[in-house]
């Protein structure tokens, strides 16, 4: 029993250490530049939760500064045995990056619609014939991953990267985004200039159910604006109580989604995003920018992944080594259900302008 208690204490100490590292990482993201860097990094490691992405980021930076890895930014990360599956071995003396891994439990219910009816099953307990079984996250434990530069062995296949000319948007991205907007019951309208939509780059009108985008700018800006407005439609339905928050938070979320979608396609939108996000994050009354970031990071990630999952476009790698099929924990899973589509807004809902107004 003493060993069990000792192991539990060691685990709790490691979890406390992880929380301290994560808090420190979040507290550094108080400027537009830092937030943009974090989102661009998260877009390249989008198979990981936002919290785990930050933990990998700060620990890899420390490893680079200590001379343990050759590159300032990681490319692919995986667990010890996962690297072995790919014919690679962690180099002797290379410490892993500690992240959160979910602890799951099985629950059964004969009446799934009633939250109080669910009961947790024991390790070998079988559910009854009339019961539905679901797996849920019940806690977290520390786990470790290593960057590919901390391993040696069989070569990792080179993955192609999107190559775009200055101002050019990826093939099929605009059409894919339009299809998602239309699936939500909105029409995409292209206007000649910002003067037609009150000086903004884009505008979402919940009354007419129209998303307007100015066309006198580069393809990249048009696509980024459309993503920004799609994020508003997905996340900020005026009928949703949670969406009735400070406009600064809404704008940080929408523009952050636009940056992640752009980064996942090799697009650089930081020139617009950095001052935009910095301005809105600092405008939230009685809330520190770091608190805004804590509240929005995972929501942004899940919304961006929900959009990416529905796009048939050429995207950058997601941080999982090529050839490895990773079982994604419930806490890190992304699917279309991760960013649920809101009900269609009512006719009396107001317009929401984005990117510049």
Automatic annotation (TrEMBL):
Record protein name field: Uncharacterized protein
Compositionally biased intervals (Low complexity): 330-347
All copies of domain IrrE N-terminal-like, residue ranges: 189-269
UniProt xrefs under InterPro entries: ArdC_N, IrrE_HExxH
Ranges where the record places region Disordered: 316-357
Short name of one Pfam family: ArdcN
Boundaries of every N-terminal domain copy: 35-138
Chain segments annotated as transmembrane: none
Lineage: Bacteria, Bacillati, Actinomycetota, Actinomycetes, Propionibacteriales
Gene Ontology MF terms: single-stranded DNA binding
């Amino acid at each position: 029993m003493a060993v069990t208690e000792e192991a539990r204490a060691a685990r709790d100490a490691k979890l406390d250490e992880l929380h301290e590292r994560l808090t420190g990482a979040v507290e550094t993201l108080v400027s537009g530049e830092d937030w943009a860097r974090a989102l661009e990094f998260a877009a390249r490691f989008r198979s990981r939760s936002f919290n785990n992405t930050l933990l990998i980021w700060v620990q890899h930076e420390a490893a680079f500064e200590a001379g343990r890895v050759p590159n300032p930014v990681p490319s692919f990360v995986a667990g010890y045995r996962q690297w072995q599956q790919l014919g690679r071995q962690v180099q002797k003396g290379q410490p892993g990056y500690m992240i959160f891994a979910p602890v799951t439990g099985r629950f059964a219910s004969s009446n799934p619609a009633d939250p109080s009816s669910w009961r947790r099953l024991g390790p070998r307990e079988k559910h009854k014939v009339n019961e539905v079984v679901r797996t849920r996250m019940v806690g977290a434990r520390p786990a470790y991953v290593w960057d590919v530069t901390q391993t040696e062995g069989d070569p990792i296949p080179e993955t192609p990267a999107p190559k775009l000319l200055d101002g050019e948007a990826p093939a099929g991205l605009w059409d894919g985004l339009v299809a998602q907007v239309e699936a939500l019951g909105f029409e995409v309208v292209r206007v000649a200039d910002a003067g037609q939509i009150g000086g903004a780059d884009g505008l979402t009108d919940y009354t007419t159910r129209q998303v307007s985008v100015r066309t006198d700018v580069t393809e990249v800006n048009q696509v980024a604006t459309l993503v920004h407005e799609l994020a508003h439609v997905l996340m900020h339905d005026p009928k949703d109580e949670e969406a009735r928050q400070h406009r600064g938070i809404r704008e940080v979320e929408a523009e952050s989604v636009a940056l992640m979608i752009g980064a996942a396609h090799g697009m650089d939108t930081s020139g617009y995003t950095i001052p935009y996000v910095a301005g809105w994050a600092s405008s939230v009354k009685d809330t520190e920018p770091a608190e805004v970031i804590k509240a929005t990071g995972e929501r942004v990630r899940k919304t961006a992944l929900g959009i990416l999952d529905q796009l048939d476009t050429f995207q950058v790698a997601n941080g999982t080594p090529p050839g490895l099929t990773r079982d994604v924990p419930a806490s890190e899973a992304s699917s279309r259900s991760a960013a649920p589509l809101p009900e269609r807004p009512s006719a009396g809902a107001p317009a929401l302008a984005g990117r510049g107004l």
